[in-house]
Amino acid sequence: GAGVSQSPSNKVTEKGKDVELRCDPISGHTALYWYRQRLGQGLEFLIYFQGNSAPDKSGLPSDRFSAERTGESVSTLTIQRTQQEDSAVYLCASSSRRTGGMNEQYFGPGTRLTVT
Amino acid sequence: AQSVTQLDSQVPVFEEAPVELRCNYSSSVSVYLFWYVQYPNQGLQLLLKYLSGSTLVESINGFEAEFNKSQTSFHLRKPSVHISDTAEYFCAVTSVGGGKLIFGQGTELSVKP
Q1: How many CB pairs under 8 A join A and B?
Q2: For residue B4, what are the β-bridge partners?
Q3: Per-residue pLDDT tens digits for B1-44
Q4: Chain A residue closest to B6 (CA)?
């Protein structure tokens, strides 16, 4: 079946503008995650949605970052008043918790955000 | 809190040589462990995982990793590498029943002819 998809694949924006990044998880996956990968660094956890539970927002770096998810479908990550340090690849992943809590996450191709 | 340390940022190696990519983790609870691979210009893919049972896990392309609880390590090994193994490798941990993955900084494996 289809994997995790993300759009846009690339986004160039001016400092101070708002951006929205979209993630379509694998159908039926109840959990959805956002990560950030800055150049030359590992992945940083941002936020995690699991079903109807309150999201784990512990990784969001500032209040300029927010994310929403409608049910078990699409998620949008919004960055307000972008700064140059927000430049990174933003990765989305989804997983199914119906297989004994294996937590195997499937990653999308990412959105490369460049703030000029 | 959990953390992952990949001890080598870059590992250059010649084709057909053995390789070991080191990963150590820290956690106060039981964990699942993963190795992900990111080939040039491609997305992140799961290479192998340890959930429970046998401490030695294998991938379909000849990599293996061994979970060592006493040393809190999950090193990745391959007895003979190919040019096509050139990629960035990430070790990751999550708590059993938890959600988010905690990643190491990555190890860039460069296989030379």
Answers
A1: 56
A2: B25
A3: 889 999 999 999 999 999 999 999 999 888 899 999 999 888 89
A4: A42
